[in-house]
Amino acid sequence: MGFVAAAYLVVAALFVGYALTLIGRQRLIAELADAVRPDQGRP
Amino acid sequence: MLVGAAWALLAAPDEVFQGFPQRIMYVHVPSVMTAYAALAVVFVGSVLFLWRRDARMDRLAHSAAELAVLFITMTLLSGAIWGKPVWGTWWTWDARLTTTLILWFIYVGYLIVRAWAPGSRGARAAAVIGIVGVLDIPLIHWSAILLRTLHPQPTVFRPEGPALPASMLAPLVVNIVAFLVMFVALLTVRVRQERTLSALVEVLEGR
Amino acid sequence: MRIVWLMVGKDLRLEWRTREIITTMGLLALLLVIVLGAARSDPESAPAAMWVTYAFAATLGFTRTFSLERDHMTALRLAPIDRGAIFAAKALANWFMLTVVQVISLPIFGALFTEKIWTRLGALALPMALGGAGLAAVGTLFGGLITQVRLREALLPILMLPVALPLLIAAVSATTAILDGQSLPAIGAQLQLLGAFDILFVAASLVLFDFVLEE
């Protein structure tokens, strides 16, 4: 029934959404790390 | 670890069920238990942070608070979606629902304070909120029960049977464990991020 | 203890000079009474209207007692006073002001909603006082927390009202019962809740206020 699907979808969406924020923050960290040590990590 | 959690979550719908909407229980109950686990972490982290001034405790509390709001949201939404086919209504003012809703507001407030007051002031203010929120739980529950006995529910409230058949208990436990594992995984990632961020900010500010 | 009363006196005297806090709280309360009364003025709506009004008046006023100190509380922080005493003083001052607002609003509630408010005044006093005290305790704790935060006056309701909801529920329930003609023993459960709330929050605030006032 649609309700079960909706519930599972909502839960999944929330997990995914949070994971996306984590990824976004990880990118921010990478940028800041670059600012601190611009010469590290470049080939 | 994350893969394991996802697999466990998907395994549940294959199990025996009573009435299709009952399946929502497999995500709703773990959500609420994980939410309370997260709140416990916020409480302990906040107390330790204020008492010992340990920044790690603050990062732990902050991360746990984010996850608490996440899981409380999950609880509220999955509960409401479950309620509609089973009770005929999206919401009732039953003690548990009311308590969960209020906790949502309190911990969103925690996150707002951290957003609007960065730094140590915000951390301390949020810690106080974290502590007070959990302390308030029994009072909220009590008042919601008070409310309900004075305004009996007009809709039919069918409580879930307290004794679950074994065939349903197993997938439920699996899912609870899966949710808790997911919580710990996310918490670890988040706390590490906070630690790295703090370190980076310190270096940048030292320049 | 004497220090607490000294500080309460100081805050109230400071307030008396400009009377800004009481005036704004009072005006907001008056507006709320009128707006709510215009919406529904049947007697059953009175308790909810009353407590909504008091809750919002509280959120408007309770950050201000910390601004009475022009120097951002430095003098208080430096003085060797137990932080709990500072909380007690601010909370008592806030409670006093809220009580004034409650008292002033009662005739208007009586006029617009139901005269039973006047006839049942004696029994009403206890839930009003306990509820007001609870609002003062929570409001002072959170008010003190956010004195340096952006948009503190917008933030206080967001922080305070969810936490205070059990208090408001009990207060509305108690007020409804009293206006219905029931006597104090009948609202024992509500009074217990109100009392428990007050005790919990005063105790928690006394302990936590050290951290609230740190710079």
Describe the structure.
The complex is a heterotrimer of chains A (43), B (207) and C (215). With 43 residues, chain A is mainly alpha-helical. Helix content of chain A is 81%, strand content 0%. The mean pLDDT of chain A is 78. Helix content of chain B is 80%, strand content 0%. Helices cover 81% and strands 0% of the residues of chain C. By secondary structure, chain C is an all-alpha fold. The longest helix of chain C is centred in the middle third of the chain and has 30 residues. Chain C is built from ten helices and no strands. Chains in contact: A-B, B-C. At the B-C interface, helix 4 and helix 5 of B face helix 8, helix 9 and helix 10 of C.
Largest interface chains and counts: B-C, 30 and 32 residues
Report the sheet with the most strands of chain C, covering strand number, pairing sense and barrel closure.
none
Q: Tell me the number of helical segments of chain B per DSSP (H or I, 4 or more residues long).
A: 6
What distance lies between the first and last C-alpha atoms of chain C, to the nearest angstrom?
25 Å
Overall average pLDDT of chain C: 84
Question: Given the structure, what is the number of helices of chain C?
Answer: 10
Give the radius of gyration of chain C: 17 Å
- The level of helicity of chain B is over 70%
Based on secondary structure, the structural category of chain C is mainly alpha
Distance between the termini of chain B: 39 Å
Overall geometry of chain B comes to globular
Contiguous runs where pLDDT drops below 50 for at least 5 residues of chain C: none
Low-pLDDT segments, ≥5 res of chain B: 153-162
Tell me how many strands of chain C there are: 0
How many strand segments of chain B? 0
Helix proportion of chain C: over 70%
